[in-house]
Amino acid sequence: MGWERNTGGFGIANLCDSDKMITHNGTLLRHPPTMPRQSKRKTAVPYLPERYAWIDDYCRKKRGCVSEYVQAWDVTRYMLNGKFFVVIMQNPAKESIITLKLEPGYGHLLRLNHKEITPGYHMNKRHWNSISLESNFSDELLKELIDESYSILFKSLGKKVQAAILEQVSS
């Protein structure tokens, strides 16, 4: 769900300038009418404090990663094969947060040990965790958690899709 398939075939998808998604085998996918369009904005990620400016480049360098700012939801999300592994937004208290997918036990342990980590805002609270970017959270641990979120999503993909992603040249 989420994407409307116009022709046959499956595979890893990449966004292009015309708000369409094209798979590695040429299949054309389009946004359904109810889904917000990708913004053409080329500026920095909203709500990302300067101290964490590296997050955008770090996520975008992951193989197969597509990032988009969804203006209707006011979020920046980083996706792999149409599913997201990182979301950056503001919570109701207007704090900048990054939300990541983690194994439930590991996420719970992190929440117990780090006050900056809370159950995922607007996400499944068991699998997703939000980290306040208004704190002095460790860059090294944050990189590790982004890698873990990407890894969980990558491992959930089929072997053919994984192979297609691994064949991509890093940009």
In short, what is this structure?
The chain contains four helices and ten strands; from the N terminus they run ββββαββββαββαα. The chain has 171 residues and is α+β, with helices and mostly antiparallel strands. A six-stranded antiparallel β-sheet has the order 5-6-7-8-10-9. A four-stranded antiparallel β-sheet has the order 1-4-3-2, with no helix packed on it.
C-alpha termini separation:
28 Å
Structural class by secondary-structure content: alpha+beta
CATH class: Alpha Beta
Question: How helix-rich are the residues, as a percent range?
Answer: 25-40%
| Overall 3D shape | globular
Name the CATH architecture.
Alpha-Beta Complex
Q: Provide the residue-averaged pLDDT.
A: 79
Q: Mind telling me the C-alpha Rg?
A: 16 Å
Q: How many DSSP E strands?
A: 10
Tally of alpha and pi helices: 4
- What is the element string, with H for helices and E for strands? EEEEHEEEEHEEHH
Low-confidence stretches: 1-43
Major sheet: order of its strands? Answer: 5-6-7-8-10-9
Overall tally of structural domains: 1
In terms of DSSP E residues, the strand content is: 25-35%
CATH topology: Aspartate Aminotransferase, domain 1
